[in-house]
Design goal:
With 534 residues, this protein is α/β, with parallel strands linked by helices. α3 packs across α4. The strands form seven sheets. Strands 8-7-6-4-5-10-11-21 form an eight-stranded mixed sheet, with helices on both faces. The radius of gyration is 23 Å and the shape is globular. It contains 16 helices and 29 strands. The protein folds into four domains: 122 residues, Rossmann fold; 115 residues, Rossmann fold; 85 residues, Roll (Luciferase, domain 3), CATH 2.30.38.10; 105 residues, ANL, C-terminal domain (GMP Synthetase, Chain A, domain 3, 2-Layer Sandwich). The longest helix is centred in the first third of the chain and has 17 residues. It binds adenosine-5'-diphosphate. Adenosine-5'-diphosphate (ADP) binds next to β16, β23 and β24.
């Protein structure tokens, strides 16, 4: 049977558009194992994609059959994702660091036809996938072909699934977010309209491939005809190597979670001055602690900093330039207005749309780029894809984000926190972010995380902080006294622990569950209490 054909709204068609216009331009610049930089042109990337697609097509898979792609971001990984897209095979990305247990639960859940891993990665003895293969610059090699199946579909439609990304769990239990070609292509076209990146950009991507922030980088760079620059994990491990790589690769835009910048800001902020070509820093995934943000702006005066807000369920919702300098009294960041073609509406606890500036509500996102649903979980899907609160009779569904924001006078929004970070203490509602914001106003504190820890039948607030440089000291008594002056008694943390770094998830966000565990266990607490600020 003939190969399924992708419609115009296919991710492959959008991202390989530049191959026809600027075939010789580098699509990807990447470092090999020795750190030597290589350029892969749009023409070469397209050829590799076609090669992989021919092999995949030979397996006789049907539109909708899943392919798990285990890799770091690279030209070969991008070609693999695009080959899947072209044939209507939803890709499910996992990174090589994904623990076996998590990979196994993903494999069991999505029942892939193929598990393809990047060359050089060890084969894991997990028998769940039907077929297995490995891929690299030399081609796609099938080790165990999947069982032949009957092709029931002929065309790859805009509504077909492009990918499934499993959330990391910072927003509750991990869920498989199903995104259609239409959703992701519509989203990336909005980025083009908003001019997030241009053809002259070199866009560094730092997130693991399982996090959709990595797919965002690939999508934004290639759809703009720019150059994608994946940063290797080993280079992210040391500020000197990371900055050296970004400098040598002549990167103009960096994508990363806020914690990406913490080590360099603490240990050697002057290194940042080497990034003469850097024009923009796009962060997303969580709030950027204000003191760190100020420091980043001071050391990178030529770069604009953009706050990307949103969730995997729509890839992102808004991109807002952070004012430089940040006003002195600023405590929470603006998440502005939704990207082109989308709109954010605030809804209060009674279900009414918030129209009065200063009021807080939950963010509902209206967008043609929303996800299709959670993989195999109609109940969880129905809980967040809900009738439009403005006029439900249209039958249109919008995304209930679980995030709270305050309405500004110009209709812009400021982030307040996740609704599940709103906790009750002795009958009082406490916003964990507000306590964290107070702690980061202490002179040496640059980042803080507060959590509710079970203690002798009750729950108490405990805080962890990171100081601005190794060897800095925090006077805990004075810090608690400051909190007591600034906050109502029930919001003052029971204790403050200094850590060299906040515990992070695989995706680089603050891992509150792990922090709570550490602070809750008497052993963990003593470890934390005595942790040196190295
Ligand atoms: P997970 O963290 O479980 O993998 P997501 O990456 O989809 O799932 O997380 C989305 C959530 O991250 C948002 O709902 C919001 O709470 C938070 N978030 C994302 N970007 C920002 C931002 N710029 N500022 C504050 N919070 C953010």
């Amino acid at each position: 049977m003939e190969r399924p054909r992708p419609s115009a709204d296919n991710l492959y068609r959008l991202l390989m558009g530049p191959a026809a216009v600027t075939p010789d331009k580098p699509a990807v610049v990447e470092a090999d194992e020795s750190g030597v930089l290589h350029e892969i042109s749009y023409r070469r990337l397209d050829l590799l994609t076609q090669e992989y697609a021919a092999v995949l097509d030979g397996l006789g898979l049907d539109v909708g059959d899943r392919v798990v792609v285990e890799a770091d971001t690279s030209a070969a990984a991008v070609a693999m994702l695009l080959a899947c897209s072209m044939l209507g095979l939803p890709f499910v990305t996992v990174s090589p660091q994904t623990p076996d247990t998590r990979l196994l639960s993903i494999l069991r859940s999505v029942e892939p036809a193929l598990h393809a891993r990047a060359d050089g990665l060890a084969r894991r003895e997990l028998v769940e996938a039907d077929g297995s293969a490995h891929f690299g610059p030399g081609g796609l090699v099938v080790e165990r072909p999947p069982a032949r199946r009957v092709r029931r579909r002929r065309n790859v439609l805009a509504t077909d699934t492009a990918y499934i990304v499993f959330t990391s769990g910072s927003t509750g239990r991990p869920k498989g977010v199903v995104m259609s070609h239409r959703a992701i292509v519509t989203f990336l076209r909005a980025m083009l309209e908003d001019g997030l990146a241009g053809p002259d950009d070199r866009v560094a991507s730092t997130s693991p491939l399982q996090f959709d922030f990595a797919l965002f980088g690939i999508g934004v760079a290639l759809s703009s005809g720019a150059t994608l620059v994946p940063v290797r994990r080993e280079d992210l491990g040391s500020p000197r190597r990371m900055i050296g790589f970004l400098r040598d690769a002549e990167v103009s835009q960096v994508h990363g979670v806020p914690s990406l910048w913490r080590p360099v800001l603490r240990h050697d902020p002057d290194l940042l001055k080497e990034l003469e070509r850097l024009r923009s820093v796009v962060f997303a995934g969580e709030e950027f602690p204000i003191p760190e943000l100020r420091r980043l702006q001071e050391t990178l005066p030529g770069a604009r900093v953009v706050n990307g807000y949103g969730a995997t369920e729509s890839m992102a919702a808004s991109f807002t330039e952070v004012p430089n300098p940040l006003p002195a009294e600023q405590e929470r960041l603006s998440i502005g207005h939704a990207h082109a073609g989308a709109e954010m509406t605030l809804v209060d606890h009674r279900g009414e749309v918030v129209t009065q500036p200063g009021r807080i509500g939950e963010i509902y996102l209206r967008s043609p780029a929303l996800f299709t649903g959670y993989w195999n979980d109609p109940e969880a899907t129905a809980a967040v894809l809900v009738p439009d609160p403005v006029e439900p009779r249209h039958g249109q569904k919008v995304l209930r984000t679980g995030d709270l924001a305050r309405l500004g006078t110009g209709g812009d929004l400021s982030f307040v926190g996740r609704s599940d970070y709103q906790v009750q203490i002795r009958g009082n509602r406490v916003e964990l972010g507000e306590v964290e914001g107070t702690l980061t106003r202490l002179p040496t504190v640059t980042a803080a995380a507060v959590t509710l820890v079970p203690r002798s039948g009750d729950h108490v607030l405990m805080a962890a902080v990171v100081l601005d440089r190794p060897g800095a000291h925090l006077d805990v008594g004075a810090a608690l006294a400051f909190c007591a002056r600034e906050l109502p008694t029930y919001m003052v943390p029971r204790s403050i622990h200094t850590l060299p770094e906040l515990p992070l998830t695989e995706n680089g966000k603050v891992d509150r569950a792990l922090l709570t565990q550490k602070l809750a266990s008497p052993r963990g607490t003593s470890d934390v209490r005595h942790a040196t600020n190295a």
